[in-house]
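INTERNAL AUDIT FORM
Audit reference: QA-55
Scope: verify that the stored structure record matches its stored sequence.
Auditor: D.O.
Record contents follow.
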Amino acid sequence: MVNPLPMPPKKSTASASEAPAAPKPGAARLFLVYGTDDLSATRKADDLVAKLCPPEEQAFGLETIQPESGTDTADPVCAVLRNTLEALLTPPFLGGHKTVYLRGAPFFDPLTEPGKFAAVKAEVERLVDLIKKGLPEGVFFVLLTDKVNKSTTFYKTFKSLGDVHVFDEPEKDKEAEEDFIPRVEKMLADQGLSMPRPVFNAFLDRTGFSLRQAENEIEKLAVYLGDRKTASLADVQLMVAPIRESKFWEFADTFCDGDLAETLQVMRRMFAQGVSPVALIVNLENRLREIVVLSDCLKRGWARVSGGDWPKLSWSLPAEGEALLATLAKDPRKGNPYAVAQMAAQANRLPPARWYRWLTAAVDAQAAMTGGEAVAPEVALEIFAARLLGELAAKT
């Protein structure tokens, strides 16, 4: 499910393809770059920094502050913010220009950790106060983060006094088809690679809507394939790391596709990687619960799945349907549209009664694995998969 492409994303307050102008008197000296499309946001921020402070001037004109991985408790976060404040207050060397680049700092949403810590809020307020008063002459500030809260004084200050650039990954299947997928296809073309459509679908299933993840995995595939230019399903399964609920998604997805041989192969590979069979069955139960709901909605005519390689799910709910889905802990209408459509396509292959029986069997299998029975959990899971998916194999 899958990201360099100098293409503008759909959701941006400023185009990624526009090169920022060199600093001019009266030009913005504050730049906020954020969004869930980490690759595009990072490239934009790096590009801004390169234009504000060219490489030949960076020895004395650039100060980059990047939190270490795992900096998510109050004390180290506050230290990063204090260092940023100090850097902004330090005059440029010999009276020239100076750019302060705070890179990859997820501190600016007061509703989530670490932004919600009182000490962190206090340091952010100090930073905002400085920005409101005005940076020292010749100082520029570029801030890169994953998300911000638009209702905060922090965001409003950047919005009113500087430039804000937003890069978000697609949230709807239409956006994915119109923006994200063509960009991934261009990445493949740039590497001289191709994938049959089913292989490409499997690739996207593993990468999710992450351009950075897709780019990294395509580069890995290019090195692995060597002179070969067409990637196979086996190549993707071997080389592309799954990130959508990690490995658990792959097992549940393969099982619900109904392929017994492939399911056993994936299962045994995960056992070899140390994945718990109990964790696999629990995740499969969660998937089957969602499919039971989708299958029932399809049978009632409340939902309709269409399309082939790129399934689409449309809803037409009566009042009772609206009320019923609204009470669910996991309303399918609020899930990732692409993932839910894929599950709906799976649900459409079998009647609701079959999916419900399989869910019940999965619950029983979990109880057997954790109830102290003599059969090893790995063997119990293989027997479970062979018994249920064997029903389909027996009919073919």
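Auditor finding: record pair retrieved intact. The chain has 16 helices and seven strands.
Action required: none
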